[in-house]
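Thread: Newbie trying to understand structure tokens

Hi all, I'm a second-year student working on a class project, and my supervisor (Dr. K.) asked me to get a predicted structure for one chain before our next meeting. I've only ever worked with sequences, so writing a 3D structure as a token string is new to me. If someone could post the tokens and maybe explain what I'm looking at, I'd be very grateful. Here's the chain:
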Amino acid sequence: MVSLVIPCFNEEKRLDKSLEKLAKYMNTYSYISEVIVVDDGSNDKTVQVASSFQNEIKNLKVISLGENLGKGAAVKRGFQEARSETVVFSDADFSAPITELHKLLNEVNNGYDIAIGSRALDRSLVKKRQPFLRELVGKAANILIRLGAVERIYDTQCGFKAFRKKTTEPIFEKQTVSGFAFDIELLFLAQRQKLKIKEVPVLWFNDSLSQVRVRDTVNAFVDLIKLRLRHAKDGNGKLDTSFALIYRHQTFVRFALVGASGTLVDYVSYYLLTRYLGLSPLRANPLSVELAIIWNFTLNNLWTFSKRKEQQSLVRKFLAFQFVSLGGLMISQMQILTYTHYLKIYDLLSKAMTIPLVAIFNYVVNSRWTFKDLSEGRSLPKTYPAIILILFVVYLILAKLLTGDFSLLLER
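---
Reply by user tm_fold:
Sure, no problem. This is what the structure looks like when written as tokens:
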């Protein structure tokens, strides 16, 4: 017997036609034992439309998630509620007609754990195609998906899939992606567990009212990276080892990415100040660094350390970040001073050479002081300012020794 799961979000305009077709189909074929419509927090009349078919569709269950959690969350809930040995999910628009259901069931009955509808294996079955740009983006995305996660499957996103419940329950339990990339995660986990998957060509009629957009494909690619990071520890290849390392140190990776973007801001500003406004390297450097500091603080606060429970107000965090950056600036200034005045290295190259040490210093101090998580215990608020003041003094001494001038920050 089969449980049919239909995830919905604002489907009042299409759902009635689909359920009418389903009711007629079920009058002819009796192997669908229950239909589970899962409403993903719609703000239209989707629930009312689905509920109106209670007398026409046997064993119809309508579930509302109450809020918009994502298509993956709706499918997972439907799978959990299903009581049949085979669970099929179909998009609400029935772009793959319900009459194609037998193709998936035949493969499950032949021993496959998962049978997935495919638009890629036989393009002649695609009777109404998607817009050119959307189709092009989809093909490019599938190449990346096959390279990065799911091997030998050419259409992971078709909304028509069948699962043998007993063997696929473990992968649904591990599912973490609730958006459009949930299919990728399920198939990725299935291949990890050596489940048998069959890709089946099916009829397909693209619905012009489809709510899937190009941006959803972009979001799915972001989710692809996230799921590889989350599940990397379960693998044993070199790629998994790399992803697992990144996942364990994801806060530092985020900080580094923000720092890289800040470096771009810093470099562009520095170049404009020195080449177009005529400022000296040691005068332009603090100004360009300050612009980068503001950029980095904003992104680190909103992204890198956003999940930490912090006690400091936004203003105090910004002041602390500024003070830490002063220490980084002193380290940068000391290196530039040494490279340009003593070693005679080209100034843009000298500035690039300062990046690694400054990045490490900024991350260590900011993570332990500016954005310190309350669960990690008390910080040492007097220690870090003292270190930064020492760096400032050391810089002045170095400036005096190498150039004989204490006023380099005011150099014309």
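A couple of things are worth pointing out once you decode it. The longest helix spans residues 314-342. The chain has a mean pLDDT of 84. Feel free to ask follow-ups in this thread.
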